[in-house]
Amino acid sequence: MIADDDEKWLAAATSAVKQNAFYMQRAIDSNNLKDALKFSAQMLGELRTSKLSPHKYYELYIRASDELRSSEMFFRDETARGCSISELYELVQHAGNILPRLYLLCTIGSVYIKSKDVTAKDILKDLVEMCRAVQHPLRGLFLRSYLAQVTRDKLPSIGSELDGDAETRMDALEFVLQNFTEMNKLWVRMQHQGPAREKEKREKERNELRDLVGKNLHILGQLEGVDLVVYRDTVLPRILEQVVNCKDELAQCYLMDCIIQVFPDDFHLQTLDVLLGACPQLQPSVDIKTVLSGLMERLSNYAASSVEALPNFLQVDAFSKLNDAIGKVVEAQVDLSASASVTLYLFLLKFTLHVHSDRLDYVDQVLGSCVSQLSATGKLCDDKASKQIVAFLSAPLEKYNDVVTILKLTNYPRVMEYLDHDTNKAMAIIIIQSILKNDTRIATADEVDALFELIKGLIKDFDGLTDNDEVDEEDFQEEQNSVARLVHFLYNDDPEEMSKIIFRVRKHILTGGPKRLPLTIPPLVFSALKLIRRLRGGDENPFGDDTSTPQKILQLLTETVEVLSDVSASELALRLYLQCAQAANDCELETVAYEFFTKAYLLYEEEISDSKAQVTALRLIIGTLQRMRVFNVENRDILTQKATGYSAKLLKKPDQCRAVYECAHLYWVEEGENLKDGERVVLCLKRAQKIADAVQKMTNASRGASSTGSVSLYVELLNKYLYFLEKGNPQVTGETIQGLAELIKIEKGESGAGSFITSTLRYMEFQRQQEDGGMNEKYQKIKMEWFE
Questions:
Q1: What are phi and psi for residue 466, nearest 5 degrees?
Q2: How many Cα atoms sit within 13 Å of 472 on the Cβ side?
Q3: What is the pLDDT of residues 539-598, one digit of tens each?
Q4: Rounded Cα distance, 192 and 44, in Å
Q5: Any signal peptide, and if so, which residues (predicted)?
Q6: DSSP annotation of 157
Q7: Is 540:549 a contact under the CB 8 Å cutoff?
Q8: At what angle do helices 137-151 and 120-130 cross, to 10 degrees?
């Protein structure tokens, strides 16, 4: 309903403006000064209304001011035809109503100034004083806006036709400052016009009119003669006095932003202490972070665009002033939220990283100031504040792209302490991703300690939290995989320092829970094994440090892998024991290697009960043992016999058969003359064949069952015999192979192993036809007629 009334009143007023403008224009065309003034005053009388909202009043004002341009040109033409401008100036003062009178005075006054018949100072002073007669906030604000508009090109400014001495420029400056002061007072008073229930609406309307006031500051920024001295001694103090004294949230926030955006960067830099001194005096409700962030952003861009400006930042000690100002603002505004405080320090940090990126002490000081502020709040529960902290901590990472540099900041981990568990982990992931992305090497044990202090949220449980079923498994796996990848970036070419790194990493990783250790211990073990292989072949104690020898590191790994047994990761522990045994073999440490195998065997016997897991583990044991060269005959026999015994005890007969014939490789090692026992090889193969026979009998006993599995076992055994035949085992004869081949012929029937058999026979025939290498002689002992 109110909006409809607004439209009706605006339509009526606009119609009246158009009608009077028409008659005014007709009078101008006929050079009738009296009627032109009469209809101009009647047209401007429509601006006396109090019915319109500020938005609608603005539309009416624009229409009326546009029509006044014709009057201004008419008055200029009248003076050119000999009419006295001073008489015109006096004549319009007889208008009946004050508002039309002042609009006409401003219009003729602008022509008066341009005629140069009188000093601009007198006219400007007269106009700005007489405009005080209108104290209605809305009408007075638009009247003074019109005054600023028509006199803008009459002031001695950049691009102006008028010029003047220093005194004239100061007069123009005083005029603009006085007009600004009065307009701001009117603008602030608008909030008190009307009932309290409509305050929010009025604030919205005031916000729409803010540019009318800010226009004066734009004019000030363009005036000639406003140099650094004038700005520092006159302009800035006068503006800030008005800003602080008005005690209005909207006005203070907008005007501070105007000051920052309008005046040059070097002015702000040289008057930083004055501008910042006003910030703690602003209303507590003012969004001070927006003000200061705008200032620091401008100064940062200024520093980035001009290398010559950097010494000025150091000369005026801009960093200290900004840091102190933010501290005072936070102290003065007791109700300032944690997120707002962190945002202030975030912008200060960004400023520091842009302007003083080489000063880590400045960066650390900002972090310390933030810690001091957060100490009063404790752990952050506000999501917005937590996000700001993450952005705050990410800024140095993005600037330096080097975590090693971040580790030098003593206050960095102190800031992280205020993050909740989930956000702490998210920040730790960001740190790790930075290392991985930038290929950063963490090269000392002290750096490792500092790094793991930062990412401890991923390494261990804290704040009473434990790994539980509610944790998203996919996210957890991804987090721990990041930690595992990180371990490989902890490296130093110096073996002594690398040894220290290994010991430090172990200390941190072992603080993890049972879900973490199976994912984080393996990379530690392999990193240590890499170091061990670098140390082999050197002196027994190359550093004079017992902790740096292969024996000590392997002992450390023994204790480390044992932890996996306690957290139900026996299969993984067995794999790692076998890896350590190979490293001990490379270092020719027989006792240590034997101990690792013993531990692997104990795990196999006591912890691994699943049949499939047993098959996999046994294959790993046999494969690793086959590569060992460090054992004497006695130790090797003990370990080999145990492996063979385990093979015969597997749950399923086919698995038994395959494991037993794999054990044959333990008795025939190509690289060692003393590790070739043909008789035992054949013994293992015959034992495997007996198991295959048992499988075949069981298959035959099961009516309708396919014999594919048992025949496949025979073919696999045939391939093993062929392998050892080619390797020169004298105990493998053509008759033995011939007998197995005949058995396959009998049992194959309609089994599904036909393609396997065919491939094997083709290979045998191929070798029989070879002329070089002596293979044909070995294969000539085998008769192939059985296949025909």
A1: -130, 160
A2: 5
A3: 444 444 556 789 999 999 999 999 998 888 999 999 999 999 999 999 999 999 999 999
A4: 26
A5: none
A6: B
A7: yes
A8: 170
